[in-house]
Amino acid sequence: MTKPLKHIFILALLAYFCFMFGNGLVSLTIPDEVFYAQTAKEMLQQHTWMSPYLFGQPQFEKPIFLYWLLKAGFLVFGVNSFAARFFPALFGILGVVAVYLLGRLGFREDKKAFICALVMMTSGLYIGLARTVFTDLIFGVFILLALLSFYWGYVFARRKGAGVVLFFIFSALAVLTKGPLGLAITALTVIAFLAIKKQLKFLLHRSFLWGLLVFSLISLPWYVLMFKLYGNAFWSEFFYNDHWRRLVEAEHRVNDTWYFYPFSAVICFFPWSLFLLISFFSLPKYLKQKENAFYVFLICLIIAVFAVFQPAHSKLISYIFPLFPALALLSGGCIADSLKEEKAGLWFTLALFLNLLLILLIPVALITAVFLFRNYLTQYMSSPGSIDWFIFIFLAYGGLTAYFLFKRKLLRGIYSLAALLPLALCLVPFVHRDIEPYISPKLSCEYLLKNYKVDGVILSSKFFVRGVRYYTDKEVAVIDIPGTPFFSPHPVPFLNTPEKVREFLRKQKVTYCILKKGNLRDIEGIIPGEFKSELLKLVGNEYILKIEPLAK
User: pTM of whole model > 0.90?
Assistant: First the structure.
């Protein structure tokens, strides 16, 4: 087996553990995982592959590709959390391999490319997105594959035609995953790169015409079909509400700051955040080199992502995921170069030791938690003894990492640091039962359906409503006093005044509710004199309530 194939095999195996291990243990979480899964589930029920459905009505918040994957997963594995998370994990593995291949093209060094892929695979946001149901990882991987294809054609003249056509194919799939931004990011990156290198003539090739044709054949038919079937309803929701409105209006106002994305990118790159900062300070040195094309290419990708997402007022951390391959290649390359030096630089060594201190703080924090919250852990944790095991494991892990660093075995120290978050994932089988009631309404829904005959509409808090629909398949209504409707239209009753709640309750003989504490208090202030309520069960932070009219 050649070295590249060996590296790819090792990376795929490690990525399988990072992204697939325990994927089905925790139920789908609220509010977003169940949103995507419910859409695919309703497509399955409606026997359609083209029209996304939610709450029994077509919805167009995102294009179709993720729903195709989710529906395929449900058909193969059944409707469950593993099936929903299978394809994001699979794309996570694919993305790691793609970063390795792009690193080999750019750096011409197998070891450096391997370290870059390892950094990508073990960064916080990458692991998080590869283990959950979102569009962003799949979207980002398609952008990565498009740029890998372009750079392959750029480096090898004989592969130019194939590289350009593949660039358009993956860009088209990105457009089917999250919309026109899929082409905007890839095109901006390539055009900016060629302009800086004064090679815009690269675009004057017949393969670009073929590529545009293939792009159109892949990306446009679904959009044309939706416009034909739904007309202005599709145009209004998809292009106006979910693109233009997000550009000019903040869905999450607290995120609408100039520093949100730069700060988030650094923090979410943990445990490689310090190395990322060092790599940016080292950039001028690399850009002065004669063979600097790859670094220019990576910078163009970063600029393109910020140019697309920074002006928009609606900001979420996951939106800027497409720049993470560039961050991994910059920081991984910087790490590899530092390791080659006989005496590693001061900042590189300091970053390693600061990360070691952080590793050693984990068992200290666990020991503190055991002493301060022993009664709570014993009462509420299903396996409180597992904490003792993890204290021992992290102490041993921290000691081994310290040994590598003090013995100047820096490469082993880097590999040890890469194991931090994957090692933390080993906690999942021991704590998933304890955290699930706080992140998913599955247990509440199961309790309600098992013990009571639910014939009417379930009243739910806004944050829980998607999950309640997913886990019960019942009609739902939202209580949110005073509240604003969902940013994207949801065809469910939205009760944001006491009178609307009373009117809703009058129409039902019995109303079952799954509420957060604040909405429970709202109900308690609304029903006296006309209705009676009974608290059936508290599951995590979800109050299961039964409301009936008072006998006249």
Answer: yes
